[in-house]
Amino acid sequence: MKPFTTYLAHIAADGREQTICDHLAGAARLAQNFAQSFQADDQGELVGGMHDVGKYSQEFQKRIHGDSHRVDHATAGAFECYQRGQPFAAFAIAGHHGGLPDGGAQTDCVDAATFYGRMKRAMQGKLPVYDAWKPEINPPQAYIPDFTRKGLAEGMFFTRMLSSCLVDADYLDTEAFMTGNTRSSDRCASIEQLWDRLCAYTAGWFPPVREINRQRCAILERCIKEGENRSRGLFSLTVPTGGGKTIASLAFALSHARQHGLDRVIYVIPYTSIIEQTAAVFREVLGSENVLEHHSNVLYDLEGEADTRNIHLAQATENWDMPVVVTTAVQFFESLYACRSSQCRKLHNIANSVVIFDEAQMMPVPYLRPCVHAIAQLVAHYRVSAVLCTATQPALQPIFQEFLPDHPITELCPQSTCEWEIFHRVTFAQAGGLEWSALANRLNGHKQVLCIVNTRKGAQELFTRLAGDGCFHLSTLMHPAHRRAQLTEIRNRLITGRTCRVVSTSLIEAGVDVDFPAVYREIAGLDSILQAAGRCNREGKRDAKDSVVTIFQSEERTPPLFSKSIGAGQEVMQKYEDLMSREAIHDYFCRLLDLTGTDAQDKQKILHRIQTEFFPFRSIARDFHLIDNQTNTIYIPVGDGEGLIARLLSGEHSRNLFRQLGQYGVSVYQQHFEALDEAGALEIVSDGTAILRDLSLYSEQTGLSLELDFGKGLFI
């Protein structure tokens, strides 16, 4: 066979050919543009223009023409950049298909999958010969930003952002060639147009007709003014529950983005239940075509009759190229510590944005320091304005001061902005210890009441003691579609004044929009108690003295997980008369962080490893998981779930199917899973997926049972 003299990057299904030179030029232009948002356009041009020089080998050209042998084409471009003193570009290119590698050590052998192992392989001439790139490609002299020299942590974060630029550029240029179409950039409204829509939406709020609305409008106006007047930086937005923080934070974000030429607004929210609620509000205000809701429960179905909007949104989940993105804390932070190309692809679009961390107090303590470190990097070097948004502001100033000494946290809504007492719509009462039966008697005496307990087992125990119609249970032992249906019925009953007694775990606390005249809360941390209080007299239609939040100790042993937060909360409740004051909340979080200690705020030693090891991308990605995945998912064949499971059993294993199945899945701990399996209640299919076959164990009222027929009780 004659050697190839025309070097191709891609061949389309219709036979069209794209040369490597053309692909590299296209990817370089895109990556340069992406990296411009953090002053690294030279680096973007370099990685885009060099990432595929390994395709200039005869071996790769054989493969693109039909040979089945795999060819490593990424190491060549990485090696060329490494030789030119461009380590960040070298890492980004090395990982642009298989994911960012661990750096390894200079003693690594040539067979090692580490960066050093691959560079050693190239140095020893163990790559296919690819010299044909030299007459066609002229790599630019790329400036390396000064801040990357501050330490390994800054360099590692920069590498991941640069990798994002390359991966997105590579995919987009390849997609444009293969399909013959370039993605349209004008499908969405501009920030200015979104601002106009927000103004039109809130115009009817003025002049406010009730006192509580007057206070909400004062908060809104303050946030708009702060957005216009403040330089980019780090902010907190402390708004009392019911103060309208969702719209107020959006108003700050859009006014701030207008002022500083920022590209998008990203909302980071701890729970999918809050995301769905928040995204629905934003779609109403801004238009559904401008809001991307990206989390595991959302599916943009491209099978069958996919419309233009669904295609656009599905594509936007890949790289977050939308003006408003609403996502989970898990998606956001795990992407920032990821190594896989598909996870990193969207990261460059976080730069030059306003990022709102809603319910900021929910950042998990075992990963608190790495999360704060990531926010600090974005604010310091990537033109991000970050807002910690909550009614119960965590005391994170000392940690931010450590990582971001030149950016103090600025409060957007000082206490003088509004009369906080207007939002004090409840009275707290202490009930001491209550057995389940005594507590149930109290709840049965209310027509409408919410009781929040600490465990799923406790929720089921208490619910069985409630009497009469209109009693509801909520916990994660119910699949998401089941919970959503229950919440819809609960809201309808509250609005129409019908009987509504609800027992729930803490899933109802953060951001779920319900309004009960009375709330009971099992003893917990002060933040949980105040979040529970936010579900009582939410609209301020009753006197505070008639809207009582009762704190009690149940007969159940306190789970160790809650011991520190309960301890800190009890100390603060003894010290302060006004539990909702900013002083009490700040004191609580200071005590809680002191009790947990610095080491417990980074349990996997993520930051120590980043600061002392050579770019350990893969090992960090393996260990950084905000939710400890020590659970198993069981799919429940009820409702639409029955048909979805039938598709699974017929052999379908698409990503779309599993996303839909997620609405009918219940996560259980290993002990519970094994007990169900031993009882013969599960069908385990070949890939390990579990299906509940004994549907007598799934109740329409309480979800998956914790008590099996053979009498074994499970404490969950």
Automatic annotation (TrEMBL):
SUPFAM superfamilies per record: P-loop containing nucleoside triphosphate hydrolases
Entry keywords, A to Z: Antiviral defense, ATP-binding, Helicase, Hydrolase, Metal-binding, Nuclease, Nucleotide-binding
Ranges where the Helicase ATP-binding domain occurs: 226-411
Keyword Kinase recorded: no
Example GO molecular function: ATP binding
Biological processes, Gene Ontology terms: defense response to virus
Pfam families: Cas3-like_C_2, DEAD
Record-annotated HD Cas3-type domain positions: 13-172
Database matches in NCBIfam families: cas3_core, cas3_HD
Matches recorded under PANTHER family: CRISPR-ASSOCIATED ENDONUCLEASE_HELICASE CAS3 (PTHR47963:SF9), DEAD-BOX ATP-DEPENDENT RNA HELICASE 47, MITOCHONDRIAL (PTHR47963)
Family: In the central section; belongs to the CRISPR-associated helicase Cas3 family.
Identification of the protein by name: CRISPR-associated helicase cas3
Species of the source: Butyricicoccus pullicaecorum 1.2
